[in-house]
Amino acid sequence: MKEIDDNEIKVFADRIKNISDYDFSGYSDKSLKRRLAKLLFDNDLDFEIFLEKMEQDKSFLEKVVKKITVNTTELFRDPAVWNSIRYEILPLFRNYLPLNIWHAGCSTGQEVYSMLILLNELNLFETSNMYATDINSDVLEIARTGIYKYMFNLNYLDNFDTVIRQNHSGQYIDVEYSKYFTIDKKRDVIKMNPFLMDKPVYKKMDLVRDTNPFPAKFELIVCRNVIIYFNYELQNRVIKLFYDNLSAGGCLILGVHETILGPFSIYFEKKYQGYFKK
């Protein structure tokens, strides 16, 4: 597989920006190099032909964008984080009417459904609004359908058990999977129940260039394992976007390997598994 150099990364980012509304100039070079090299290999193209094909074929350009952006998620990923959300963070917003939540970079939606399940267990479902965005229209469509591969997600049912089927003291709670989704092992399908699918409002959004697409500020913003792929400048731009759209005392939840650095760090207080707006 051909290695991509720094100049090719710059040429690629500049070309994308010139021929579309997408901007990858603030993405981590390491991440871009790895994904661009794989795209060239998978499509059996040299660099110049690859650029020409992007310019001439809009569907190929969209395919490239979807492959460059990262879509990794699962039901109740990192159970310790979700237990903190359940027992320490969401109870702080119990009296908010409504409780507005935004999942930014929601990918195929498993984290959106994880949050909805928690809200239902805490009797906050009816008083909450759920919003979700991603740059990739394909993954948003999967999120809307609420249908996932059973075998692929089989291990993630353990996450459900850890967060939903036991309390803070580790005691078992009798919550059937059927309360929230159906499992068809023969068809290799997990399907979320309709009342969960009807709740979220999904919109396509590029965190790099777009503004908040919803008529709301948020008590909780979840953006996990997204800004780790951005450089320092872009991270701060996105953190500012979140800061401006959090309500007073609102909470931002990032990935376990992400943190707030730079000028906006003084405007947040790290508490539990979240960053609270001061």
Q: What do you see in this structure?
A:
It is a single chain. This protein is of the alpha/beta class and 278 residues long. The protein has two domains: 6-68, no CATH class; 79-147 and 194-277, Vaccinia Virus protein VP39 (Rossmann fold, 3-Layer(aba) Sandwich). It is built from eleven helices and ten strands. It has helices spanning 6-19, 29-43, 47-56, 58-68, 79-89, 110-121, 137-145, 150-153, 156-164, 194-197, 232-245, and strands at 99-104, 128-134, 147-149, 181-184, 189-192, 201-204, 218-223, 246-254, 268-271, 274-277. The strands form two sheets. A seven-stranded mixed beta sheet has the order 6-2-1-7-8-10-9. The radius of gyration is 20 Å and the shape is globular. It starts with 5 loop residues before the first helix and ends with a strand.
